[in-house]
Design brief:
GO cellular component, one term: membrane
Distance between the termini: 75 Å
Oligomer: single chain
Shape: globular
Protein name: Teichoic acid transport system ATP-binding protein
Order of helices and strands: EHEEHEHHHEHEHEEHHHHH
Pfam families: ABC_tran
Radius of gyration: 26 Å
InterPro entries: AAA+_ATPase, ABC_transporter-like_ATP-bd, ABC_transporter-like_CS, ABC_transpr_TagH-like, Bact_Polysacc_Export_ATP-bd, P-loop_NTPase
CATH architecture of one domain: 3-Layer(aba) Sandwich
Bound molecules: adenosine-5'-triphosphate
Largest sheet: 6 strands, mixed
Family: Belongs to the ABC transporter superfamily.
């Protein structure tokens, strides 16, 4: 994903006019070379430093921005938690639930059905009948989160919203998302706190400068990212750079191994000895296992069959 953005030149110029007119368009590669498959039931955390491309990736996945190149294929319309655009500060929380539901494309009947569960999940109590402009950022985030889940999306994307909720809300939201995952949904969560990713997600993607560094088990990836971020925060840039380098190499190797499983034979390099061995497997008949099971069940005699009657 590339953005074209104006940039001013700060090199000294004699006149103000000269400084103002010395603007040029630059291209920012926000996300590049990113490729992965998300499966149903996965809770995927996206971590990385500021500006590493996390939010851009979510926006592209959600279809809010068209990628400059590449394709996003989804089995359902992803819902990016951020119905805020549709919510109105002067309306009460309750009125905004209706508005948000309709903005997400639900019918009036569906909005009515989701109303009580959303009020309950938001846990706003009496504040649900107060104008939203009186809410703290955490309260507003809770309402937005509850409205998004109320629409029962099969792909939900959350950009930081959970970090503003308190501990009780974190617990409730975790339960609500677990329910969603149990119904074969997929959740993406962008969060700076590697610990949150570690606690909540099953898989984590670590991004740096628009690229994927590591993609794998949430605990493993989040811990590696934390160690990298810790060294960076301590000012040990050399160590952080070498950790990043190691992680990138590990990630590249993982991707190479995954590609070996899926790659198109027509576009492959000549096979090495090891890989050729896999190619030499003859074409199997359809459903060979079914035949084995069928034979088994024909021949099988159970002890009770042999027992005298
Ligand atoms: N609309 C835009 N126009 C130009 N550049 C942009 C735009 N949006 C994002 N960028 C750039 O793309 C890069 C990735 O930004 P993005 O917001 O995706 O990062 P992020 O990882 O979500 O950051 P943060 O953790 O700070 O939220 C940054 O260099 C940013 O400056």
């Amino acid at each position: 994903m590339r953005y074209q953005t104006p940039r001013t030149d700060r090199t000294p110029s004699k006149t103000l006019r000269g400084r103002l007119t010395r603007r040029q368009m630059v291209s920012v590669a926000a996300v590049r070379g990113v490729s992965f498959t998300a499966r149903s039931g996965e809770f995927i955390g996206i971590i990385g430093r500021n500006g590493s491309g996390k939010s851009t990736l979510l926006r592209v996945l959600a279809g809010l921005e068209a990628p400059t190149s590449g394709t996003v294929l989804t089995s359902a319309k992803p819902m990016l938690l951020g119905v805020s655009a549709a919510l109105i500060p002067d309306l009460t929380g309750a009125q905004n639930i209706t508005l948000g539901g309709l903005a997400m494309g639900l019918s009036p009947g569906q909005v009515e059905e989701m109303f009580e569960p959303v009020v309950e999940l938001s846990a706003l109590g009496d504040a649900i009948d107060l104008p939203m402009r009186t809410y703290s950022s955490g309260m507003a985030a809770r309402l937005k989160f509850a409205i998004s889940l109320g629409a029962d999306p099969s792909i939900l994307m959350i950009d930081e919203a959970l970090s503003t909720g308190d501990a009780t809300f974190a617990e409730r939201s975790k339960r609500a998302m677990d329910d969603m995952l149990a119904r074969a949904g997929t959740v993406f969560l962008v969060n700076h706190a590697a610990q949150t990713i570690e606690n909540m997600c099953s898989r984590a993607i670590w991004m740096e400068r628009g690229r994927i560094v590591l993609d794998g088990d949430a605990v493993e990836v989040a811990r590696k990212y934390r160690w990298f971020a810790h060294n960076l925060a301590q000012g040990d840039e050399e160590k952080a750079a070498s950790l990043l380098h190691d992680a990138m190499e590990e990630g590249a190797e993982e991707r190479r191994l995954t590609e070996l499983q899926f790659e198109d034979p027509a576009t492959q390099d000549p096979p090495s000895q090891g890989r050729r061995r896999w190619r030499e497997i003859p074409e199997l008949e359809p459903d060979p296992f079914m035949r084995v099971f069928a034979r088994d069940s024909e021949e099988k005699t159970f002890p009770s069959d042999r027992a005298p009657r």
